[in-house]
Amino acid sequence: MNEDFQKNYNQLTNVLEQEVKVYRSLLDIVRKEKEILVSTNLDDLSENNKAKEASLIRLRSLENQRIHFASEVSMALDLDSENPRLLEMAVALGNAEGERLRNLHSVLDLLLKRMHELNKNNESLVNSALNNITGALKAIKNTLDENPTYKKKSVKVEGKAQSGQLVSREA
Predict the structure, then answer these.
(1) What pLDDT is recorded for position 83?
(2) Any idea what DSSP says for residue 158?
(3) pLDDT tens digits, residue range 12-33?
(4) DSSP 77
(5) Which end of the chain is least crowded, N or C, by CB within 10 Å?
(6) Taking the mean position of all CA atoms in its chain, how far away is CA 136?
(7) pLDDT higher for 57 or 3?
(8) H or E segment at 115?
(9) CA separation for the pair 49, 29 (Å, rounded)
C-alpha cells in the first residue's frame, strides 16, 4: 500500500477510536440521565443535557472526518467511495488492518445499540411523568370547573359547597 493510503487509514482509525471514546462518555451521560430523571433534580438534568449536547457536537465533527477518511480509503481500495462501509474495507484489507476495522465497527455498533435502549427507557420515563402531570392538571381543572359558584349573569347557584371548590358560596 502507498504512503497516502497508510496515512488516510491511520487517520480513519484514529477518528474511529476518538468516536468510541466520545460514545462511551455519551453512554455514561445517558445512564446518568436516567438516575437524574428518577430523582427529579432539574439542575442536574440541565447540566447533564449540556454535557450531552457537547458530546453530540463533538461526534458530528468526528463523523464528518470519518466520512472523509473512509471515502479516501475506499477509493484507494477500489470500493464505493460514495458510501464507504467499514466492513467492506475490512474484507478488502483482510489482514490485521482489516481486523482492526472490524473490531472498531463492532464496538461502535454495540455502543449505539446500548445508547438506543437507554434513550428508549429514558423516553418512557419522561412520557410517563408528563402523562401523570397532565392527568393531575386535568383533574384539578375538572374539579374547579364542575362546581362554579356563579352562573352567567351573576346568579347564585344553589347547593352545598363541595371539596375542591376554592370559593364558598356563602358570604
Answers:
(1) 87
(2) P
(3) 999 999 999 999 999 999 988 8
(4) T
(5) C
(6) 27
(7) 57
(8) helix 96-146
(9) 8
Q: One-letter amino acid identity for 128? A: S
> Helix, strand, or coil here: 7?
helix
Name the residue type at position 89.
M
Nearest CA-CA partner of 100 in 111, 87, 110, 113: 87
What is the DSSP code (8-state) at residue 156? B
Number of H helices, E strands in the chain: 4, 0
Helices (H), 77-95: 86-93
**In angstroms, what CA-CA distances link 135 with 103, 107, 165?**
48, 42, 19
The domain limits of the chain are: 3-146
User: According to CATH, what is the number of the domain 3-146?
Assistant: 1.20.58.300
All three cell numbers of 163, joined, read: 371539596
Tally the C-alpha atoms within 13 A of residue 13's C-alpha that lie toward its C-beta: 15
Nearest Cα to 79, choosing from 112, 120, 10, 70? 70
Instruction: Give per-residue pLDDT as tens, 114-138.
Output: 999 998 988 888 888 888 888 888 8
Q: How far apart are the first and last CA of the chain?
A: 95
Total residue count of the chain as it appears in this document: 171
Residue at grid coordinates 461526534: 59
Q: Which three cell numbers stand for residue 12?
A: 480513519
Distance CA 1, CA 72 (A): 13
